[in-house]
Amino acid sequence: MQAAQVVSHGSPLVIQEVPIPSPSIGEVLVRLEVSGVCHTDVHVQMGDWKVKCPLPMTPGHEGVGTVVKLGESVNNVNSTLQIGDRVTVPWLHSSCGQCEHCWSGWETVCSQQKRTGFTSHGTFSQYCIVDAAFAVPVPEALSSEQAAVISCAGVTVYKGLKVSEVHPGQWVVIVGGSGNLGHAAIQYALAMGMRVIGVDTSQSKCDFMTSLGAHATVNVSTQDIVSTIKSLTGGAGAHGALIIAPVASAISIAVKYLRPRGTVVVIGLPPGKFEVDVFDMVLNAITIRGSIVGTRLDLQEALNLATDGKIQCKIRKRNFTEIQDVLDDLKDGKIEGCVAIDIP
């Protein structure tokens, strides 16, 4: 089968022939139809996180395809999964199921988890191995392209918004609101009843966020983000912020435009560290919280909202041979909405 792999960190992906894998106990083999592309794939390729993937590695973790082979004992793990089922292939490949985090519904922080496209080969390929317990079925009414990008971009921002503690009718700021995750975040926030301020770096991106339904936008290239958000919220500040852009200073600045008891949820992963005004954070009881993808239940909820017509990701289709070009465009901030790769 064909797979686009990282063979050396910092070098372009190499499309090459690799053997079709065989599912082990509790696993299924999925013939992929489409794969989304995420900024995490850029980090996997570049190797710029403090933890690097083993090589060679097939990136990709926003896949949708059809189950073509069942491993041993699959029906003991997921009694409904059958050959021919259309499923997602998400970031969370598996977790231990036995730790306090798994037991309490936080499998996303299990220390024994495996990650698709990082510790297990991912969806930039024709076939992929999936843990049967983590292969979430795709609703019949939802397209494979929509389900693919929701399996990472959608569920990640949906979970981030859930843990922001922003209630219906309250203000949430989405930093990096025109991109892959950001444009989905605006739609999920609106579906959850929030009032949305989108933040990005150009007027065209602000116009795009407005077209998605954002109540207001901030162009950081021409406007002061703190004073503008304060003004938009009647001087009180926003109730929460979702930091999607991988820019460390965005985290520090968010503390300044939130109202007391506001929450900063960090999704973007810039390298290095960030500084925060501890005085402002403590006296205003500001919470800064990380959020990583979502659980299987979160994913099912995110898919259901899309099936109900409340989420419509803007997707541009690209060919499998263009994967490296897509990663370059993503790294350079040239992509509005999402990209879905057709798997040959």
Automatic annotation (TrEMBL):
Report the domain of life of the source organism: Eukaryota
Q: InterPro entries in the record, alphabetically?
A: ADH-like_C, ADH-like_N, ADH_Zn_CS, ER, GroES-like_sf, NAD(P)-bd_dom_sf
The record's section on SUPFAM superfamilies has: GroES-like, NAD(P)-binding Rossmann-fold domains
What are the residue boundaries of the Enoyl reductase (ER) domain, all occurrences included?
Answer: 10-341
The record's CDD domains line, in alphabetical order, gives:
CAD3 (cd08297)
Name the family.
Answer: Belongs to the zinc-containing alcohol dehydrogenase family.
What's the protein here called?
A: Alcohol dehydrogenase
